Each structure stands twice: as C-alpha cells, then as structure tokens.
Automatic annotation (TrEMBL):
Protein name: ABC-type quaternary amine transporter
Region called Disordered, residue ranges: 1-25, 318-350
Keyword Nucleotide-binding in record: yes
SMART domains: AAA (SM00382)
Keyword Cell inner membrane assigned: yes
Domain of life: Bacteria
Biased composition (Basic and acidic residues): 319-328
MF terms in GO: ABC-type quaternary ammonium compound transporting activity; ATP binding; ATP hydrolysis activity
InterPro entries: AAA+_ATPase, ABC_SmlMolc_Importer, ABC_transporter-like_ATP-bd, Mo/tungstate-bd_C_term_dom, P-loop_NTPase, Transp-assoc_OB_typ2
Comp. bias (Low complexity): 9-24
Amino acid sequence: MTAGTETVDTAGAPTGPDTAARAGSTRGRLVLEGIHKALGGKAVVRGIDLAMEPGEFLTLLGPSGCGKSTTLNMVAGHLLPDSGVVEVDGRDITRLPANRRAMGMVFQSYALFPHMTVAENIAFGLRMRKVGAARRRRRAAEALELVGLDGMGERYPRQLSGGQRQRTALARALIVEPDLLLLDEPFSNLDAQLRVRLREEVAALQRRVGTTTILVTHDQDEALAVSDRIAVMAEGTIHQLDAPETVYLRPATDFVAQFVGEVNVLDGIAAGASGAGHRCRIGDTHLVTATPVGTAPGDGEAVRLYVRPEAVRVLAVPEKGRSERPPTDTDTSAAGASVDTATRPGLPGTVEATRFLGTRVRCVVATAAGRVEATLPFGSEVPTLGEEVICAWQPQHASLTARP
Ligand SMILES: Nc1ncnc2c1ncn2[C@@H]1O[C@H](COP(=O)(O)OP(=O)(O)OP(=O)(O)O)[C@@H](O)[C@H]1O
C-alpha cells in the first residue's frame, strides 16, 4: 500500500505508512492491567495482566468459556471492563468506543457484507474514514494482492470459498493499518487441511506487515504453530504466558500440562537433586528424573511429573533383552537400547498395546504409576505385546511440580 497522508476522523486511528512497509513497526504496544469482567452475574475474566511488544503475535489459548473472547472484546472496545486498564502505546483507551480505536478484527463467521463485492468489503473501513473512491480502489487492489486474491475484487462473498472469504476478512481488517489485529477463532469454520494452510499464510503475512496480533483459539496445535507467545487461560485467568516451546516443555501448572498436548502424568515423591535433574520415587522402588518447574521440591514432598509420549523411550530389560536390541551405555538413545535400572532411572512395565499410526507407533506400557504412553518414531523396533520393558526419558524432557 502506498504511503498514506490522509487524515482520518477517528481518534487514535492510523494515518501511518504503508501496511507492507510496516514490518518492524514500533506501533501497537498493548498493555492490559488488572482486567476484571463479570457477565450475567458470573466473573468471566478475573485479573488479566498482559504486555505485548509491537509486532508480536500472541495467542489466547484455552477451553470453551474460559474468557478468551471476552478479553479480546475488551481490547476491541466492544465490552467495558468492570475494572482495570487497556493501554495502547502508552495511551489509556479503556473507555474509548470501539469505532474510535484502531483495531482490525476477523471473526470465525467472516462477517462480510453479502451485498457488497469483495473489493467493496475490503475498502469498507476506508470509506468510513472518508477516503476518496480512487484511492480506495487502489488500496483495495493492493490489499487483495497482499492476501492472494488478485482479480477477485468484483466477486460477491457467496462466490468465494471459505478460505477466500477469510482472506477477504483479513484484507478488510488490515487495510485500515490497525494498531492491533484481533483474530477471534478465524480458522474454525474451515476444513482441517485449509485451516493449517491458512494459519501458515496468516502467520507469514503477519510477519511481513508487522501488525501486533492477538489470536483467540482453543486449538493448541494452531497456537503452537503460529505464536510468538501463548497465554494459556482457564476460568478467566492466565495460567502461563510464555513462548510455545516453554509452554509445551515446561508447563507451569497442572492445567497447562494437561491442556496443551498429550502428556503422561505420574505421581511420586521427591528424592533429591541429581546432576541432570531431580530424582523422584515412584512406588517403593523405582527412581525417575525430571526438571522442576519453579522452586525445587524438598525431599519427601509429594510431586507430580509430566512427560510427553514422544519423550518416552521404551527400552529392553537387559537380562531379558532381545539380541537384536543391543545394549548401549546411554539411556538417551531411541527404542532399541537397553537400560540397567540398578544404575539408571527408569520405570519398568509391561507392553499392553501397540497402535500403528502411520508415521509413528503408539506404545502403551502398564507400570506401577499407571499407564505410560510412548510415541515411537518411524522406523523404530516395536516391542511385542506382554514384553517387559523400561520406560525412560532424559530429565530435561520431563517436568515436575508440587502435587496439586
Ligand atoms: N453476554 C453474556 N452474558 C452472560 N454470560 C456471558 C455473556 N457472554 C459470555 N458469557 C459467558 O462468559 C464465559 C466466557 O465467555 P467467552 O466467550 O469469553 O469464552 P471463550 O473462552 O471465548 O469461549 P468460546 O471459545 O466458547 O467462545 C462463558 O461462560 C460464557 O457463557
């Protein structure tokens, strides 16, 4: 889009440079401070604090009803918080009406005007801002190109596929060069393949234009794939606000561990630090290791350990080991190695089920701590049903917290 010099009639609305030239923008620093909101007599948002950097892509992730959309609507100005402050670029906008905020919003339902062409839909925000017709047409054509819809400007929404409609909605949100782009479950109406493709497109586009973006979703894969940071929400509060890797590998709470990705949950008793982590006793005899999240537990404290199926190695028991699974001197190798539990941590068990999943095999092992699921990578040797094995993992691949 060309450098804009037009003024607009909405306080806080942008008059800034081209959308395409805004990567590395310093605009769109959002701060939420102590936000509370009750709806229908129920506390729906209960003390949200959040600070976003300009250009950041942040996802509000949580189960249905946890307050994600309510939070987004307070940023958009569709809802007024009961208490707390919404600030953009140092300016308190808590009480500023939605139409005077510089926000671009995309909804699950597209919300396009059926009687307007795609180009008219996209240019709508500019028309509201009294931008002249010729300039509107030019900017709409540029926005169409930005979202890969060149040449489709004269169609009507009903003549578009779901993905094309959502690209139109995105172009309409971006054309006003908003401080913030707010995406409320924008991919939910699309089929699985298109959902993945469009989310990649949106993430790439966001990096290009550099608009600070909040995505609301309950889809953890989506959140992990596109976000700079994820705020995991439950019951109106943020449980953890971190980079995707940290949320996945170092879940801060029991809820985060169990909501984001699949996880084995094992209860045990803390048994002292070891060089590469913290020891944890399962049952009377078995020792495993993990990395504490936050303060390390005291000896004898009841702890809960979380380990992802893909981090679990299924190893042969040395004395029963099959000849085709040669022992190694490390327990960090893939399935096929063996482990000596007298000297190394590990959880013995019996293979209860194996399931072929195409690119990997899922192996279920019955242990003293309950069922442990392991994902064996493609090409691994698959243990036989009823085989006695050891489940092992590297301490940095398992996390440990005080038992809730
Ligand atoms: N206008 C309203 N009046 C009363 N309760 C409401 C209203 N809007 C939302 N709620 C309730 O507030 C809670 C949070 O809703 P919200 O839409 O923010 O959740 P969400 O996390 O976005 O969930 P979803 O993914 O299902 O949209 C829900 O229990 C919902 O039923």
